[in-house]
Amino acid sequence: MARFIKFVAFLALASVANANDPVVDLVRVEKSKRLLHLVSDGNTVATFSIALGGSPTGHKQEEGDQRTPEGRYVLDYKKSDSAYFRSIHISYPNSSDSEAAEARGVSPGGFIMIHGQRNGFGWAASATQKFDWTDGCIALTNEDMLKVWNAVTVPTPIEIEP
């Protein structure tokens, strides 16, 4: 029981941002380099390796295409109880995405997130992060996701570059 209490205390401390940490005012993703950058006042303060959707080239066009969107969106809410270790929602689709999909007669899809590993599979990150495996989301190791979770407040803009 004492180990469990220490573990819970550790988790509580790990979820609190340090008052001296820089304020992240932008998240930038470079899809081609598989990198996510936390930016404060124009300076990159942290960089993380990512995995993307199973078909990562190009902008997300429709539900099920396994592409990660490109463009400027907003990280608009956090979800701690998802099927993955922590999730931060990306405001895709925007009105342009919805209109383009409607013109093609398809659904734009949605529920695109930055997230950690599938719950129970954090141990596999050293393998899963070597290839693009999501349905269009941006995946991190659980350790990196915790750092992003603690550093990013909502709403925060996100720029996703090709």
Q: How would you describe this protein?
A:
With 162 residues, the chain is an alpha+beta fold. The chain has a single domain, classed as L,D-transpeptidase catalytic domain-like. Helices cover 23% and strands 26% of the residues. The chain is built from four helices and eight strands, in the order αβββββαβαβαβ. It has helices at residues 2-14, 95-104, 125-128, 142-151; strands at residues 26-30, 35-40, 43-49, 71-79, 87-90, 113-115, 138-139, 156-161. An eight-stranded mixed beta sheet has the order 3-2-1-8-4-5-6-7, covered by helices on one side. Helix 3 links the parallel strand 6 (113-115) and strand 7. The model is unreliable at 2-15 (pLDDT under 50).
Structure in a nutshell:
The protein has 162 residues and is an alpha+beta fold. The protein is built from 4 helices and 8 strands. Strand 6, helix 3 and strand 7 form a beta-alpha-beta unit.
Kindly list the characteristics that best describe this protein.
162 residues; alpha+beta; L,D-transpeptidase catalytic domain-like; 23% helix; disordered N terminus
Task: List the SSEs and their pairings.
Elements: H1 2-14, E1 26-30, E2 35-40, E3 43-49, E4 71-79, E5 87-90, H2 95-104, E6 113-115, H3 125-128, E7 138-139, H4 142-151, E8 156-161
Parallel strand pairs: 1-8, 6-7
Antiparallel strand pairs: 1-2, 2-3, 4-5, 4-8, 5-6
